[in-house]
Amino acid sequence: MGMTMSQKILAAHAGLKNVEPGQLIEADLDLVLGNDITAPVAVKEFERTGCKAVFDKNKVALVPDHFTPNKDIKAAEQCKLLREFARNMDVKNYFEVGEMGIEHCLIPEKGLAVPGDLIIGADSHTCTYGALGAFSTGVGSTDMAAGMATGKCWFKVPMAIKFVLRGKPQRWVSGKDVILYIIGMIGVAGALYKSMEFMGDGLGHLSMDDRFTMANMAIEAGAKNGIFMVDDQTLDYVKKHSTKPYKIYEPDSDAEYERVYEIDLSKIRPTVAFPHLPGNTRTIDDVGEVHVDQVVIGSCTNGRISDLRVAAGILKGRKVKKGIRCIVFPGTQNIYLEALKEGLITDLVESGAVVSTPTCGPCLGGHMGILAKGERAVSTTNRNFVGRMGHTESEVYLASPAVAAASAVTGKITDPGAL
Amino acid sequence: MKAKGKVFKYNDNVDTDVIIPARYLNTSDPKELASHCMEDIDKEFVKNVKQGDIIVAGKNFGCGSSREHAPIAIKASGVSCVIAANFARIFYRNSINIGLPILECEAAVNGIEAGDEAEVDFDSGVIRNLTRGTAFKAQAYPEFMKKIMAAQGLVNYIKAKDAKSEEKPYGL
Prior knowledge:
heterodimer; A: alpha/beta; Aconitase, domain 3; 2 domains; 5-stranded parallel sheet; globular; B: alpha/beta; 7-stranded mixed sheet; 8 helices; 30% helix
């Protein structure tokens, strides 16, 4: 039987000619990733294995991004633990504050993920690197520890769902709207344990940043991984950022897909996920009057240069509505510098928005913009469960950078096309 | 191996943010995490839970983050087993990896209410509702997962194997 892209990558890394959905395999890893929250638990488990060294110093990446720059004493101690482990193990890809970024913006930029790679990360949004045609999935700290020790991970081979993308997105519609539309359609468990495989002639109308955003949120549909066909845009990105050897996998013509969805990109409207599920979506036309107290633009989902360009483009020459907090999080130092050079930071600050150093910050209710009881935020982040960004009686609405920026101007969730 | 205790019942999509909110993620100490277990969905849970008690929930239990702190908090709070209609995939493997027994059984979820006394036999997969006198059969673990659970987690299971041998660490 033919294999999907995901199955081919798993088979290749397990040294098998063929794999079938449901099959249990053990595979060799190209990268094992962790952050300041998940790595401390992993380090404890790693030490319990009795291993004296990580399996490959070049294939482990440690990025302190969640509660950094150190949020408080406890966070500082966790970061210190991570730092010392990286030093003791001579981990080549440890990124200190000053070099670090939000991990899922940073890793592709540093060329650590390329087509055909098999990557695990102790962070659920590790699925982001599927945008590059890699098999990339989130795991817990123990799997990370076992991965660092052995360079291997066990997997149950997933069945797949195919998404055929056609047409060109309307103005103001981006990868975020497409993935929110999809999650709204199939539900937060709609792709449970499955691969979401994206292909079609509409792919060319999605930038790499759009694809990173979409692959990033595959987990919000319960998927094991999200993966895109590799095209010239992918290869341009890879050649610009990496010297690692890569391999392109395409699905066999007789690959088995549980379901096939045809997605007409031109019909998708700006989409917003209402509290308290990423799948609770409405188009911008059905949002009604939703006043907000805070706008967050950034994160591993939408903290890339094109996201900042869109947001700054809307805010330029306009003002953040008085009383609203608009906080922007560029994903990496490079993105920050690029935004500086393009004048985007000036445009943002002059509009009344504030710009932070890269950090996950408020996305998970950490720091740098937490919500009080009764407060509402519209955010370009990826989850809006109860208490996600602060008080259990606060609300988070998920949206694209364009919708978020437009909302900062009016103080309520707004169609950027209507400004 | 058996589990027996009072049932705490929840609905679908119980996510990792309500199981262990991020504001408590600056520790990895199980006891500290346990003191905040289920805080944002059930403030009374930590006061009421006793050693051996069982969580029963709907679909997609543990969805959201990969934080292993979630099953760690649940295990450390004394919960002996989580029964759900189905589990989010990262939570599922995290639970196996730390030795928190979990079972998928939609029929059991429909047939057990909050406050019922339940009993689980992991070898047979049989779940009994002792309060109502009913029984259900859960989907069994694949073989190597049984070994990981018996070893009380993945790290112990790996340690038990010779790291230098040709044998695959996961016994596959």
